[in-house]
Amino acid sequence: NGNAGFQQVLERLESDPVCQRLSLKSFLILPFQRITRLKLLLQNILKRTHPGSEEEVQATQAYDALEKLIKDCNENVQRMKSTEELIYLSQKIEFECKIFPLISQSRRLVKCGELTALDFNTLSPKWKVTTRPIYLHLFNDCLLLSRPKE
C-alpha cells in the first residue's frame, strides 16, 4: 500500500483481460485450493480402486504424500500469520528501552486482550479506587503487559 508505483502496476495487471478481473490474492490462493481439490480427487480414486491392487497402493502413496504437503502448507501459513501478527504488534508497541526484540522466529502470539487495572490509593482517608486499561500479550515464551499511550 505504501508503494504507489507497485499499486499502479498491480492495478494495470489486474485489469488486463488475461487475469479475468482476478486480484493478486486470488492468484496466491489458487494453488492451495487446487491442492485441496486434489485431495478430494484422490479420495474418490481410492474409493473406486480394488483393495490390494497396485493402483490402490499407488493412490494411497499419492494420498499420503499429498496429506503431508497440505500439512506443511498449513503450518507455513500459520507461521506466516504469526509473524505478521508480531510485525503488526511491534509497530504498535513502543518500548522505553530496546532490550526486548518482539519479532523472533520461535515466538508466537498465543492470546491478547484488554484488562482493567485497579489502583488502590491507600494514602487518602477513604480508599480510592481508580481504573485504567492495560493489555496482556501472551506469547509462547513470555507475557507482555502494555498500556495505551497517554
Automatic annotation (TrEMBL):
It holds the Pfam family RhoGEF. Residues 1-76 form the DH domain. One of its GO terms (biological process) is intracellular signal transduction. GO terms for cellular component: cytoplasm; nucleus. PROSITE patterns: DH_1 (PS00741), DH_2 (PS50010). The gene is Arhgef5. Signal peptide: none annotated. This is ARHG5 factor. One of its GO terms (molecular function) is guanyl-nucleotide exchange factor activity. It comes from the Eukaryota.
